[in-house]
């Protein structure tokens, strides 16, 4: 189909990737976001090879390589520092044909904005969508309406469009833990600069992952009740309490974080849901299938959505609605199982059933590194680009 006008609600990873793919297909694309200033949510993201391949396909491979961390190895250590498993990631790269790239979210967002090359309409809070047989319209709180041939709702885990598409309210589910994350200067006394290190124990995690600019992306996971109060002034004291007795690099990391620049989300997921599409309106990314970050696939799945949606529109001349149904069919089969797998892993890591978490710790110490990379490659190779 040619000469389509596409309205995208949401300028996050999924929305911008879709905007690039659809613009490259020759469509007129308008992107809207509710914020007054684009700021990435969270400090970093692990782009596994399936996500990187999407960006390569869109002509952004060189740019992504410049912001990606050199991650050659992955280590699991006990909370007191004993090595459980040391995993060479080169066999993974050989299996899937692309390096993974941990990146700072701001760096990634800047590359996507540059790749789109058009202004994003900010201060536009979507309050609903409408459609006719020939068009779809996004309505905004500021009184503006945007009408096109289709509307893509890439408006995140709290999507206002999802209920319209699915036909019922779908509330995000609490994943059972809180995540502190940010960026620190890379230093050998924290971790080797080419290694992703994960400390595990007491149903918690502390992690360091290399990104470009001589930095580590870090995160801490702690299972806590939903609604536990957050105060940046006490983040370091809280983390020292939660991770008391953990290995020295974990203590050094806590000392070096800048609490004012630390994100602290309560982890939620969405779905699996039964519909991604209603006629000329399609959900994309977290609005359709927000995942717990325990597989590192949230951003990658949104990027896969963008490519499949663009390919579905390009490759048919039947109708927009037919193309979107084909997108829905393919992506439900792919993304819904990822949501379930990520939640199951989150529960195992964070002690929902303590005996299963203890078994996982024991498994980490016994697993052959190739078993780990094979499991990662299985997820990656199930995507649209193999």
From TrEMBL:
It holds the Pfam family FAD_binding_3. It comes from the Bacteria. Residues 4-341 form the FAD-binding domain. Keywords: FAD, Flavoprotein, Monooxygenase, NAD, Oxidoreductase, Purine metabolism. Its EC number is 1.14.13.113. The keyword Ligase does not apply. InterPro entries: FAD-bd, FAD-dep_Monooxygenase_BioMet, FAD/NAD-bd_sf, HpxO. Pathway: Purine metabolism; urate degradation. Coiled coil: none annotated. One of its GO terms (biological process) is urate catabolic process. It catalyses: urate + NADH + O2 + H(+) = 5-hydroxyisourate + NAD(+) + H2O. Its cofactor is FAD. Transmembrane segments: none annotated. GO terms for molecular function: FAD binding; FAD-dependent urate hydroxylase activity; urate oxidase activity. Belongs to the FAD-dependent urate hydroxylase family. This is FAD-dependent urate hydroxylase. It comes from Desertifilum tharense IPPAS B-1220. The lineage of its organism: Bacteria, Bacillati, Cyanobacteriota, Cyanophyceae, Desertifilales.
